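dumping this here before i forget
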Amino acid sequence: MDRTGGRVRVEDVTTVGYGPTTQGPWPVSWSAVWVGTLSAVALALIFGLIGIAVGAHRVGAPLGSWHQVSFLGLLFSVFGAFLSFVLGGWVAAKVAGLRRSEAAMLHGAIAWLVTVPILMVLAAFGASAYLGA
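structure:
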């Protein structure tokens, strides 16, 4: 509002929206997030063991060189980490029963945020030998 000379000027504000304009906070299903997190850790363990079988365990080894690493081992190491987090997000969205992509992505991102510190704690306790490089 603007006061000029004792008169009050009122402006009309027009808002344009598509669909419902009132949206509350997105509900988070923590049980779905935890199931997605556990599935991501489980698949990371499986891909880590497969990576060890095909030679990805030599990546980053102090006495190993990059010439000893096979392309298949490197592929399993990188692609396996990606797929484990994809599975974790997908499981979190399915368990929550979400049909909208925004809420599903939110659950996948939260599952990733919960999984990363768990993997760091497991690596600190010495489980990195089983999770691959």
